[in-house]
Design goal:
37% of the residues lie in helices and 19% in strands. It is built from three helices and five strands; from the N terminus they run αααβββββ. The protein has a five-stranded mixed beta barrel. A hairpin with a 4-residue loop joins strand 1 and strand 2. Helix 2 packs antiparallel against helix 3. The longest helix is centred in the N-terminal third of the chain and has 33 residues. The radius of gyration is 19 Å and the shape is globular.
């Protein structure tokens, strides 16, 4: 009886850490448990919300660009908007269980700007570890070794990011989910882990 009570206290402690921390554990808590399923669903839901936000952010960009464009450029922006709105609707109708990380990993058809749409998009990357990264107000991650030509990472969903504060340095693990329409390599990413640097 005493051992069973200790197991429950340990499990409750683990659940408290997962619920209160921005860090998601790499290792499953135990094979086939409800807790593991819950954590997997939480990650799927986070990335799905991030993908939906990425589509909304792209729609805002193209809507703004379209207001000052004309001719072929306006036609390209309108085609991109039509595509993005269709994709957004499809993703809004997905459940987290139906979502696959990297399913939006593609260029918008017909859009070319700088390397975007011109270079071959590499396969969906595995999670990327940043040893020293910090978040700016616009959701852009800055990191040690970052260059003027990228790659650039925009954190989505931008809200909520429990415990993540702008300007604070973290060791992060991020998952790219979708390219940003930008002349240099730029990607929307979901946060997997974040540990404050001391």
């Amino acid at each position: 009886m005493k051992k069973q009570a200790q197991k429950w206290l340990m499990l409750l402690g683990l659940l408290g850490v997962v619920a209160c921390s921005p860090r998601l554990s790499d290792a499953p808590l135990s094979s086939g448990t409800e807790t593991e399923d819950t954590e997997g669903n939480r990650w799927q839901e986070t990335c799905l919300r991030g993908t939906i936000e990425a589509f909304n952010m792209e729609i805002d960009r193209y809507t703004g660009w379209l207001q000052t464009a004309d001719g072929e450029q306006a036609a390209m922006y309108q085609q991109a908007l039509d595509y993005l709105q269709k994709e957004l609707q499809a993703y809004e109708n997905l459940s987290p269980a139906e979502y696959t990380v990297g399913s939006a990993w593609r260029y918008i058809p017909g859009v070319v700007m700088g390397t975007y749409g011109r270079d071959t998009l590499p396969p969906v990357p595995e999670r990327i570890k940043l040893e020293d990264a910090w978040l700016e107000e616009d959701g852009l991650l800055h990191y040690e070794g970052m260059s003027r030509s990228g790659p650039f990472y925009t954190l989505v969903p931008t809200e909520p990011q429990p415990g993540i504060q702008t300007g604070v340095h973290y060791r992060m693990e991020i998952q790219p989910i979708m390219p940003v329409s930008y002349p240099f390599p730029s990607y929307y990413v979901c946060l997997y882990t974040a540990d404050v640097l001391k």
